[in-house]
Each structure stands twice: as C-alpha cells, then as structure tokens.
Amino acid sequence: MKIVWRKMISSKNSVIVKALLIAGLFFLTACQQMGSTEYGVRFWKLPRFLGGGVSSKVFKPGEVVIHYPVISEIYTIDTAVKDITWGDVSKAQDPEKAHYVLTRALDGNEVALAVTVSYKVSSDPAVIRNLINNVARSNEGIRKIVEAAARADIRTYMNKLKTAEFIKRESRYKAVDEVKKHLSKRLAPYGIEIERVNLDDFKFWRVTYKGGRQIIDTTYEDMLKEIQKKREETNRERARIQTVIKQKQKELQEAIARKNELIEEAKGYKNQAEERGRAYLEAKENEAKAILAQGKAEAEGLKKKIQALASKGGIELVKLKLVKELLQRLPQFVVIERGGKGANGKVRVERLDINDLLNQLGLIEGIKEKSIAAKSKAKLKEKVATSK
C-alpha cells in the first residue's frame, strides 16, 4: 500500500514538475521580427552534445522569430550600406575630434586624410552564417573589422603619393582606386563588400603634442596654400594673356579680312571703270567711224553733185532746181552764173536775200505781169461768155 501511494505521489510530482517547466518555458519565450534589411541566426546556449552553438537556419528580412532568452540568442546582421568616415571637416581644428587618418606622403610630409568608406554585408544566407560563426556576431564587430582593414590600406596605398601628387586630382583618384581594389579583395572572403572609397579632403598637417593634447601645426599647409595661390594667380594671368592674344589675333584677322574686302571692292570698282571706259571708247570709236563714213558719203555725194554740175547741162539743172525752190517759197541758195574772161562757164553758189535775188533775176515783175495777164484773160473770157 505504501509503495502504491509513493508511486502516486511521485507520478503527481512529475506531472507538476513538467507543468511548471512548460509554464516556465512559455513565460520565458519572446518574439522578434527581422528588419527590412536584417538577417538572423539563432545561437543555442547549450553544451555541444545538447545541440548548442550556431543554428543552421538563417532568418530572412521581415520574418518573425520565437526564441528563448534563457537558452538561446538571436544574432542579427544588417545588410544595408553603411559608411565609415574619418575626418570631420567641421571639426578640422581639433584633431582628436576630427579623427583624420594621419599618414605621410612618400617624400616625408605629414598628411591628414578625410576618407569615407561605404560597405555592406552580402545577403547570401550561407555567407551570413559563416560570418557570424567565424568572424563577427554583431554589426559593430563587422564595423570594427572594416575600419581596421580600411585604415591599414588607406595608409599603405596613399603613402605612395608624393606631396605634389596629392595636389594632382588624377594621381589622387588613382591611389583611392587602389585602396578600394585591395580592401575589397581583403574583405571579400568574409562576405563584406566595399561599395565606395572617397577621399573627401586632405591637409598637410603636422600633429604635435602639448600638455597631453594634440596640436596642429599648419605651417607647411599654409606655405602650400600660398604656393597654390600663387600658382592659381599665375594660371589666371596666363589665361588672361592667352585671352588677350586670342582677342588680338581675332582683331588682326578681322582687319586682314576687312583689308582684303576693300581690295576686292576696289578691284571691282576698277574693273567696272575699265569696262565702262572700254564700252565708252568702243562707242565713240563706232560713232567716229559712223561720222567718218557719213562724212565720206556726203563728200562723195557732193563730189558727184559737183561733177554733175560741172558737166554739160549742169547750169540748167541748177536753174531748174532754183525755180522749183522759188515756186515752193523755200529758197535757200541761188546759183549765179558769172561770165567773163576767166569764168570758163563755171557756176558760183551764194546765199543771198530772196528779194535781192529776185530783183537780180527780174523774176518778180515777170511773175506779177504773168499773173495779171492770166487774171485779165480769165475775166475777158467770162465777159464773152456772159454776152453770148
């Protein structure tokens, strides 16, 4: 009977213990949701033989995870792009707060670099599990790894530049590209990807210590700034000189073009004048030829008239012409026959007053008498006809 009772008590206790364990586990559980760029892995806080360690399951962004804070822990890794920045320009006068990367140029001058490195963790679940299991279990741990590697590579490859090469943009960019290439190669096995490496600023500072504090000696920086200022002024002056030279060359070309234009214009006027002169000369030559031909023709005509007048019957022709002109009341010239010892029957033509001419020839009275006789004869015929 006692044995049975003990069994009942022991079985009752085991149920209670189990119930208490289940209730304890229920109250000790918690829920956690992954962020939009977060991945998570469960870590069991148990001995290895009880399944302790990193779980093989990787929780994805947005997934809700139930875990047990007493016996497990969720490690989350953010895969968004993050930046690590050295050198706060707004705090440039305080090197302890600005956190520049302090290094040296190849020729020995100290340089303070302001650099920004952008990185992210791969979203491959296998890579994330390996990263958590072997490298770092938090975003801060990953950041420290990237920061240490980046600082080392920045110093290694930026130190290859001389002071003058830091001033040249091309050489600076080339060195920054080298930093990015080697840093990516160094961190790729851990699933860390380097997005960008930017050199934001650089200063030739000499950092010294006074009273336990860092002090910036800007003597060399100021000297370089003055040199750079003089170089810029020289470049501006050279640019201004080149501008003036180009302007004067332009004005010279315009003057030459204007001169050539005036020469061509003068040539045009000359050609036009020569053409007009040739045309005028040709016209006058043609006019002279026409006048000469006309004169020759008239002379030939006069010659023939003279020959005709000098021939037999010439005097009669002249008299006939004279009478016709007189009858038409258009007398202009008269021919006077001169007899005499030396006349030889020749005729002389003179222009005389018409009244004198008619009086000399005695034609006025003859014409009047002839007209009166004709009128009298006509009246006589009328009377005879009337009387009959």
Can you characterise this structure?
The protein has ten helices and 13 strands. By secondary structure, the chain is of the alpha+beta class. It folds into four domains: 2-76, no CATH class; 82-217, Tetrahydropterin Synthase, Chain A (2-Layer Sandwich), CATH 3.30.479.30; 244-310; 314-378, no CATH class. Strands 6, 7, 8 and 9 form a four-stranded antiparallel beta sheet that branches. Strands 3-2-5 form a three-stranded antiparallel beta sheet, covered by helices on one side. Strands 1-4 form a two-stranded antiparallel sheet. A hairpin with an 8-residue loop joins strand 2 (38-44) and strand 3. The radius of gyration is 68 Å and the shape is rod-shaped. The N and C termini lie far apart (223 Å). The model is unreliable at 1-9 and 19-28 (pLDDT under 50).
